[in-house]
Amino acid sequence: MAANFGKAPVQNVPACPELEVVLPGCAGMDCLAKAAVAEIKSGMVVGMGTGLTANRAIRALAHRVKEEKLDIDCVSTSKATEDLARELGLPTVPFAEIEVVDYLFDGANEVDYSLRMLKGQHGAITRQRLVAEASRKCVYLASEEKLVPRLGEKALLAVTIIPFGIASIRRRLRDMGLIGVARYNLDGNLYVSEGGGVVLDIRLPERDLDELALELDHVSGIVDHGLFLWEADEVLVDCKGGAVKRLKRPEGE
Prior knowledge:
Blueprint: E1 20-23, H1 31-36, E2 45-48, H2 52-68, E3 73-76, H3 79-87, E4 103-107, E5 110-111, E6 117-118, H4 125-133, E7 138-143, E8 157-161, H5 166-175, E9 180-182, E10 198-202, H6 209-217, E11 222-225, E12 227-228, E13 234-238, E14 244-248
Parallel strand pairs: 2-3, 2-4, 4-7, 7-13
Antiparallel strand pairs: 1-14, 5-6, 6-12, 8-10, 8-11, 9-10, 13-14
């Protein structure tokens, strides 16, 4: 019997664009998760992303490791990911000991047709970027409604800052035309990232994203931000009806 990794419910969203079909459907299984881990083989160091979508792929990977006796090492992009991997029996190693990751899968809050992304919903931006930059191949996963013509249509830009300078950094961001609010937990306390940063959620203005990312990189006190513009080699899209389609960066970019 085919394993069921917890298929996400189908939502009423527009039909997927004419992208390359990776899997037309797989009854009783989570097609997106299956596609995300299909290229992984023994001997690899695998980077595991953070969030609900990445968790689906982590469970699919654990199934493959158990059934196929894959010999791999895994690195995590957050404590939550590390905890899930250990619970599922995946072999994990500290990222601090790893120079190169062979394959990374992770989720995205929003993706455009140029494979540029917004990330940061789970407060692990810096770790996610570090693992991505060390990876030979980065594959990101998104449901169909997260594929947009322009970033910022639905998702906010997350900016992680050092709490010591929160007032002055927010003023600097306002001068750049970036107005946002500090993120809070449901209990009313200020949200703190795993690295100890405060997260500001900002409405993304209509401007050149490469220039904006560069400006943010040069603001003292900003630890990281959710503009992931060049990290993705591929994006796998979970389409209505169960099919998985792929956006792929052209060779040479």
